Amino acid sequence: MLRFDDAPRKATNLSLNSKVLEMARELGMNVSQTVDVLLAEEVRRQYWEKWNDENKDAVDAYNARIAKEGLPLAKYRSF
Predict the structure, then answer these.
(1) How far apart are CA 35 and CA 44, in angstroms?
(2) pTM
(3) Mean pLDDT, consecutive 10-residue segments, the chain of 79 residues?
(4) Domain that holds residue 57
């Protein structure tokens, strides 16, 4: 799993909708923390979407093999 929580923080400049930013500040939101969390979630989502696209053929081949041959060591399963 992608983990970002141990990485150091880095200052950056962002262009944000001024009305949204004003409202977030009025609500007492920590804008940096909110953007950091939401950006990390989107990076994870896009990473796994890309991974699935790039590995689709291999996953499909594996699933077809399992459908044809069954699970490896299935005879030893006790459930």
Answers:
(1) 14
(2) 0.75
(3) 86 96 98 95 97 98 95 84
(4) 18-70
